[in-house]
Specification:
Its main location: membrane. The chain is mainly α. It has a domain of about 200 residues. The chain is built from 15 helices and no strands. The longest helix has about 50 residues. The chain is elongated, with a radius of gyration of 33 Å.
Length: about 350
């Protein structure tokens, strides 16, 4: 159970691992969908190509869009591209790196579907059976052009009475299936060679730009995630204080109307608003959150965060000199910087 918890925390803290897991999951779902799909070619002259190419290309398009939707970095990339410059310049290299990373993961499942369809050959036979040159086969010599077109359209339907047990149908089907598998294996080989060259040749070049873009792309993702977490933390604390203030004001109103009397006849004291424990302000770093205590201030903070993000020149923190890095430290520095930058 502890190992499972550690693995879950690793995936939760690593956005890249989560995206790779989603990519593998989509690829596995693609294989399952294709294996369970019942392929039925219409075997009509004007519809075979439309059905075959549609089945070859439309599911990959849907899987590609699902990969973009499931990848959180696609939204972060668009936000980084469209945001105002403000106090922080936009680096096109970071956007290109994020776009490349998003596309690589989103294209995995569509490529799996296309390769499976090509290696299986059914979609290819259905789509291009009517486009085969009849002169390559001797069995069509005694047929008229209209009969040839009708016969070729019936090639994917081996149970049809017109082409059942026909050597010509088997020859055309075998020819198209071999061509489809050759294309599928060629594409697979090219992808493997490209991945091998990219992995082997990358260390031969200067890694400075790559490391910088990888670092700042991860920073943009983590910064937005920490900002969202801090906003949720502030909203929860702000709602808690508003509820306490509401109950305290209702208690004062009830006392003012005389619904509560002091049995001893002593003067009533105004109720004190319950305060949270001291540890919330001192130990957990919520003091910077409590400085934002009105809707106008919250709206101004959110508007400032969108239109003018703080520059990346934070002063060195004395607490980090001897104690190492902490994954909670950026949250405090981020919140402190926000409160200083917005002046609310």
């Amino acid at each position: 159970m502890d190992k499972f918890r550690m693995l879950f925390q690793h995936f939760q803290s690593s956005s890249e691992s989560v995206m790779n897991g989603i990519c593998l999951l989509l690829a596995a779902v693609t294989v399952k969908l294709y294996s369970s799909f019942d392929f039925n070619c219409p075997c009509l002259v004007h519809y075979n190509a439309l059905y075959g190419l549609g089945l070859l290309l439309m599911p990959p398009l849907a899987l590609f869009l699902c990969g973009l939707l499931a990848n959180r970095q696609s939204v972060v990339m668009v936000e980084e591209w469209r945001r105002p410059a403000g106090h922080r310049r936009k680096d096109p290299g970071i956007i290109r790196y994020m776009c490349s990373s998003v596309l690589q993961r989103a294209l995995a499942a569509p490529l799996v579907w296309i390769l499976l369809a090509l290696l299986d050959g059914k979609c290819f036979v259905c789509a291009f059976s009517s486009s085969v040159d009849p002169e390559k086969f001797l069995d069509f010599a005694n047929m008229t052009p209209s009969q040839v077109q009708l016969f070729l359209a019936k090639v994917p339907c081996k149970e049809d009475e017109l082409v059942r047990d026909s050597p010509a149908r088997k020859a055309v089907s075998r020819y198209l299936r071999c061509l489809s598998q050759a294309i599928g294996w060629s594409v697979t080989l090219l992808l493997i060679i490209a991945a091998f060259l990219a992995r082997c040749l990358r260390p031969c070049f200067d890694q400075t730009v790559f490391l910088q873009r990888r670092y700042w792309s991860n920073y943009v993702d983590l910064e937005q995630k920490l900002f969202d977490e801090t906003c949720c933390e502030h909203a929860r604390d702000f709602a808690h204080r508003c509820v306490l203030h509401f109950f305290a004001s209702m208690q004062s109103e009830l006392q003012a109307r005389g619904l509560r009397r002091d049995n001893a006849g002593r003067s009533l004291e105004p109720p004190a608003v319950p305060e949270p424990p001291e540890g919330l302000d001192s130990g957990s770093g919520k003091a910077h959150l409590r400085a934002i205590s009105s809707r106008k201030q919250v709206d101004r903070l959110l508007s400032t965060w969108y239109s003018s993000k703080p520059p990346l020149d934070l002063p060195a923190s004395p607490g980090l000199c001897g104690g190492g890095l902490s994954h909670r430290a950026p949250t405090l520095a981020l919140g402190t910087r926000l409160s200083q930058h917005t002046d609310v």
